[in-house]
Design a protein that fits this description.
The chain has 76 residues and is mostly beta strands. The chain is 7% helix and 41% strand. It starts with a strand and ends with a strand.
Length: 76
């Protein structure tokens, strides 16, 4: 899986690459739930379309207007 974050309007961001798994059970889903999410998941945190992924990044690449940076993780 790859997850990408970019600062709007600025050439700066980071991408994480690694593995992901679907979080089963509702404990974490309930813990991160906010009622503003009801517009996307009208049945609440237990809505079958509400999926939480746990990401295990292996490496990341970051950049800004001047340079690129790559680094690795040893999480597992």
């Amino acid at each position: 899986v790859s997850v990408y974050f970019k600062k709007p309007g600025i050439w700066q961001g980071v991408a994480f690459m690694g593995d992901a798994e679907i979080v089963r059970g509702s404990k974490l889903k309930k813990a991160i739930w906010h009622d503003s999410m009801l517009k996307y998941y009208p049945l609440g945190y237990d809505d079958p379309d509400h999926t939480v992924l746990r990401i295990f990044p292996a490496k990341a690449k970051g950049w800004n207007s001047e340079r690129f940076t790559t680094f690795s993780f040893n999480i597992r």
